[in-house]
Amino acid sequence: MNDTAHALSASRTLWELVDRRARLTPALPVLLQDERRLTFGGLRSRAERVAAGLYGMGVRPGTVVAWQLPTRIETAVLSFALARLGAVQSPVNPFYRDREVGFALRESRAEFFAVPGVWRGHDHTEMARRLGAKGVFEAYDDLPDGDPSVLPAPPADGTSVRWIYWTSGTTSDPKGVLHTDRSLIAGGSCLAHALRPRPDDVGSMAFPYAHIGGPDYTVMLLLYGFPAVMFEQFALPDALEGYRRHGVTVAGGSTAFYSMFLAEQRRRPGAKVIPTLRLLAGGGAPKPPEVYHAVVREMGVQLTHGYGMTEVPMITMGDPEDTPENLATTEGRPPAGMRIRIVDGEVRLRGEAVCRGYLDPAQTAAAFDEEGYLRTGDLGRLTGSGHLVLTGRLKDVIIRKGENISAKEIEDLLAAHPRVADAAVIGLPDAERGELVCAVVEPPPGAPGPTLAETVAYLRAAGLSVHKLPERVEVVDALPRNETLRKVLKYKLRERFARPATREP
To answer: Which part of the chain is the AMP-binding enzyme C-terminal domain (predicted)?
Structure first.
């Protein structure tokens, strides 16, 4: 990390970081989207005006404001406006629907809720009102506006909880993860330290800004003073024009993104799909070693993969100058300040980037051991060189395209299906998604099990988010169980169905 970035990483709050970067390089761009361009100075000034508008609406330091917005310049501006006020913000994935959104609003006790109106065919405003949300306002093209002279002093304490992020974890209900400005700055510093971006780099954000990766990535931009292109909707090949126009040098997101870029490269083997690209970087889902080797060989760029979670946005990251073996088979090394301990095979963490716990005190008590280390539920080992290798998970959670999916939530919904006696939902390795969702169904005696199309339609009608829907359904006569408590042996199902499906259910 260069001297300037190192000094900026000591900022107490996110707003202090914005202000210090704006003073250093006010005219340099920070966010690019389509034909629009926002500078570091513009980010500070516009966020202050939006903060004043929010203040006029009644938002004060400590007010809980939820927002469910797509990846747009306006979303980042609104988020930093809330940081300027010292409000508590609760970002909600824009693809979530009634079940998850309603839970997040109730548990966070949000006093305001920012939505995009009708977005990608879904009426978020109508959903918010149906859920009885308070203080609903639309924040897409237009944001609240006001005179910054009315604002109170910016927050000076970076260790108070001002962020509530949501993760499904291992249960059917999401968990509210508590973060501070300092924990988010520490996470972004970890990412920046590993990738060592250059002054002429152009990054990209093609993932939901409401994900923990949003502030993680933006902190890196503020530390190093380079811009990133924002993609409201990421789909290839349509998005390639934006990457090429802005000269993106660093792209990525997760295993699914790597596979999509690789597929586009294979359609044009004679020329680089993004001429300026030098590095793919991401995390959030398992990365098969063959994906790393294929990207390097066929795209002619480096690939670095990392390990993070909603509770700790950046734990380890691959170093672009590391060996191919380490980059292909490990999750990289932790930065200074992140301590990793392996206890009975489980990865445990302590450091400034670790969250403060959960909204539910009982969940917090269960998550930390007696020495203050966070129990991740992931299994792994450290190599002699300090690289982390993940070997599995204690938690029964599926990671598809970087998003955690609770198997139990889907199983509970399937239990009410008239043609399902029992069901087990498992994650199967997938080169494009990291993992795919497979529902293994045991039908009642003499009855046929549901097809994939019927299962998807049923779960959608039950309110399950689209990104959690199964891609495979397998029907079995009986689920394998142990002989003591008759628990379903999911490892046997994973072994059986890890090979590609031989038929369409």
So the answer is: 409-483
